[in-house]
Amino acid sequence: MYTDLLVKIKNAQAVKKESVKSSYSVMDNAILEILSKKNFIDEVSVKGRAPKKVLDVNLKYDKNGLGAIHGVKILSKPSRHLYTSYSDIYPVKQGFGALVVSTSKGIMEGQSAKKAKLGGELLFEIW
Fold it and tell me: How far apart are CA 88 and CA 69, in angstroms?
């Protein structure tokens, strides 16, 4: 699940690891592609075949050695799903963060979902 993946990435950055491996899922792959486009991680690659596919995530650090991800806030949980319309999608940390939304057209970053006029389940904020 995406929550485990986010915690793995955040903990790996805290101890300055270069990469993280996680089991493959379509949802995790879509989320990692969004994080890669928004420059929170360096690169994502899928390795292996069907039963043992693995996502290999290369982490990103700045010139001072700090991780690109400073914080993550999980909004929807298995016990509480949070939904919103496109008009209520908001910028995270005044535009420096990203909101990830699960829409009917797939997993999208908040601002692109707002442009496409698609609401959905709020998954998490990252900055």
Answer: 24
Query: Quick check: 35 and 124 in contact, CB under 8 A?
Result: no
Tens-digit pLDDT profile for residues 29-41? 999 999 999 999 9
For helices 2-14 and 26-37, what crossing angle results, to 10°? 50
Q: Are 73 and 90 in contact (CB under 8 A)?
A: no
Class (C level, CATH) for 72-126? alpha beta
* CA separation for the pair 110, 93 (Å, rounded): 13
What number does CATH give the domain 2-59?
Answer: 3.30.1370.30
According to CATH, where is 3.30.1370.30 located in the chain? Answer: 2-59
Count of other CB atoms within 10 angstroms of residue 17: 15
Per-residue pLDDT band for 51 (boundaries 50, 70, 90) equals confident
